[in-house]
Task: inverse folding
């Protein structure tokens, strides 16, 4: 992104980014959406509420990693975990990336708590909130960009910019473009149009480029929250976007194209390319729901818990016992239990069971809010490669930074 004093092409009227939604072949998009909705609802019923909360924490960390990696500012998941414990690197560049990652996680959590409907989350006001929620957590130094400019949290840019070959709308016209987006995307009702509307809003926000910097992160936070009523925070399109980063950028760029003749819609931009982007986005959502359904399949999950416990029971530095398998499977399905109940399910003596519980809590496989409180399932970073293989494989790789 560069700040340009001379305009390559002037966009200053909202009709210049029409159509805001695809108009043709909607049946294909609606059919795919209905399948995703059905599978997403089944997914949310797969495990206990406490286990879902643990998974949401993993997804937030994963979202931060992938969204910042898309921007070329990712840091290893282990560094993100350390940042969550207020442990920052002595190397300034890594520490800055840790702060950015942490700000993203905290912003996502803050925004999720609003429980916004998809239509509300797609509003320009929510996009401003998403940008502000992240950037207000960063120091002025961390918000500084090339040219000596400082990104102001939630502030619409007051300068004209160029983004690669794209010339976004003039700064003075941004309110008009954002108002038009609100008129279209804010009318979203029902589930049929949900995914292609979220996809189209994601592209048009990128095209408008309302902020001096941080547009991609703010858009992906907005998109995550717009999907949240459906996903429940259990699956993330960010994972798919990052894994197909080149295709992501290619199709976003293609949807910038002008209309391809009289058969390509009635707006200034290509409806055919907007449809292709929406289809790609929906396919990514479908892939992520399918993947997470496999991860949370109860029989497979039980076997992964068993495998993890057995592997660690043979490690010299771990006080694991195979008797932990059954109670761990129980808290996956049923949610928190008292320490006494957990100990009873192991069938071990009181002293041995307490030692086992202490080990599981220390490792993060069990989580408790107080030293004697109920225990629930945890998903620690160093166990993900066995419990949820390929969900977040970068977490298992050795840091190279």
Result:
């Amino acid at each position: 992104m560069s700040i340009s004093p001379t305009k390559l092409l002037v966009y200053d009227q909202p009709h210049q980014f029409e159509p805001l939604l695809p108009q043709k072949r909607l049946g294909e998009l609606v059919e795919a959406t209905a399948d995703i909705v059905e599978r997403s609802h089944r997914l949310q019923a797969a495990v206990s509420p406490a286990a879902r909360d643990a998974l949401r924490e993993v997804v937030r960390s994963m979202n931060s990693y992938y969204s910042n990696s898309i921007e070329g500012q990712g840091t290893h998941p282990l560094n993100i975990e350390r940042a969550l414990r207020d442990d920052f690197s002595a190397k300034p560049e890594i520490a800055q990336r840790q702060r950015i990652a942490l700000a993203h996680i905290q912003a996502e959590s803050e925004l999720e708590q609003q429980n916004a409907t998809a239509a509300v989350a797609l509003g320009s006001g929510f996009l401003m909130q998403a940008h502000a929620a992240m950037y207000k957590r960063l120091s002025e130094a961390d918000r500084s960009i090339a040219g000596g400019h400082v990104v102001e949290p939630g502030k619409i840019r007051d300068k004209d910019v160029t983004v690669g070959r794209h010339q976004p709308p003039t700064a003075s016209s941004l309110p008009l473009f954002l108002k038009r987006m609100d008129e279209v995307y804010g009318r979203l009702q029902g589930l049929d149009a949900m995914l292609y509307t979220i996809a189209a809003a994601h592209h048009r926000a990128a095209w408008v480029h309302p902020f001096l910097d941080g547009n991609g992160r703010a858009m992906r936070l907005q998109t995550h929250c717009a999907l949240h009523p459906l996903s429940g925070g259990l699956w993330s399109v960010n994972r798919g976007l990052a894994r197909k980063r080149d295709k992501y950028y290619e199709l976003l760029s293609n949807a910038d194209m002008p209309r391809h003749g009289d058969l390509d819609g009635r707006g200034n931009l290509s409806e055919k390319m907007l449809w292709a982007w929406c289809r790609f986005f929906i396919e990514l959502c479908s892939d992520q729901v399918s993947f997470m359904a496999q991860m949370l399949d109860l029989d497979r999950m039980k076997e992964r818990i068993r495998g993890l416990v057995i592997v660690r029971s043979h490690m010299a530095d771990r006080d694991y016992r195979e008797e932990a398998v059954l109670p761990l499977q129980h808290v996956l399905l049923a949610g928190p239990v008292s320490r006494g109940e957990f100990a009873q399910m192991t069938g071990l003596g009181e002293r041995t069971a307490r030692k086992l519980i202490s080990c599981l809590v220390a490792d993060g496989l069990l989580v408790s809010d107080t030293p004697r409180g109920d225990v629930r399932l945890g998903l620690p970073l160093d166990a993900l490669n066995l419990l949820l293989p390929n969900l977040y494989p970068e977490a298992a790789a050795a840091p190279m930074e």
Notes: The CA atoms of residues 258 and 368 lie 56 Å apart. The first helix runs from residue 26 to 44. The beta strands are 2-3, 144-145, 149-150, 161-162, 366-367, 376-377.
